[in-house]
């Protein structure tokens, strides 16, 4: 039982390290720098999957106010930025444990080559940000000759 838990923990650490390394290399290659005024304190988990129409990015960001969210396309990448605020402490309330991350966050999601970064739609419901990215048109087209 203990070995299974250790393997899961190591797998999560490995995935987080790979994501951090990948995003750092992408920023370096693209010359991108995060907003210097915002130090990212946590990263929301993100899924990216393919559908017949294109691609879908889902980010789990429960508790983040819609007004505190920003989705931006930079090159062939989608940046998700925002801030999750700690709920105000009520009189007589005392925390025994705080595990829900708060503060600013930023997450970069590189788009697949076939994605069209100019055709995105985003919705935010029930703590889930869903970004739909259409595919580039692969239909042959005639190019005029001048």
What's the short story on this structure?
Helices cover 20% and strands 36% of the residues. The chain has 146 residues and is of the alpha+beta class.
Task: Describe the protein's architecture and organization.
- It is built from one helix and seven strands.
- The chain is an alpha+beta fold and 146 residues long.
- The chain has two domains: 1-33; 39-135, Immunoglobulin-like (Sandwich).
- A hairpin with a 3-residue loop joins strand 1 and strand 2.
Structural features:
single chain; 146 residues; alpha+beta; Immunoglobulin-like; 2 domains; four-stranded antiparallel beta sheet; three-stranded antiparallel beta sheet; 1 helix; 7 strands
Number of helices: 1
Order of helices and strands: HEEEEEEE
Strand order of the largest sheet: 1-2-7-6
Strand content: 35-45%
* Named CATH topology of the largest domain: Immunoglobulin-like
Number of folding domains?
Answer: 2
> So, CATH architecture of the largest domain?
Sandwich
Largest sheet: 4 strands, antiparallel
What structural category do the secondary elements indicate?
Answer: alpha+beta
What is the CATH class name of the largest domain?
Mainly Beta
Distance between the termini: 71 Å
Helix content class: 10-25%
Number of DSSP strand runs? 7
Unreliable segments of 5+ consecutive residues = 31-38
The radius of gyration computed from the alpha-carbon positions, rounded to a whole number of angstroms, is 19 Å
* Overall 3D shape: elongated
> What is the residue-averaged pLDDT?
83
């Amino acid at each position: 039982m203990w070995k299974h838990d250790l393997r899961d923990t190591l797998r999560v650490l490995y995935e987080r390290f790979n994501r951090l390394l990948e995003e750092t290399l992408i920023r370096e290659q693209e010359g991108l720098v995060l907003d210097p005024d915002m130090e990212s304190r946590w990263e929301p988990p993100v899924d990216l999957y393919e559908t017949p129409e294109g691609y879908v990015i889902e980010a789990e960001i429960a508790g983040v106010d819609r007004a505190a969210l920003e989705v931006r396309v930079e090159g062939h990448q989608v940046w998700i930025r925002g801030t999750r605020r700690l709920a105000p402490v009520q009189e007589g309330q005392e925390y025994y444990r705080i595990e829900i991350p708060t503060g600013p966050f930023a997450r970069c999601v590189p788009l697949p080559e076939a994605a069209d970064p100019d055709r995105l739609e985003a919705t935010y419901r029930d703590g889930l940000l869903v970004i739909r990215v259409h595919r580039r048109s692969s239909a042959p087209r005639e190019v005029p000759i001048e």
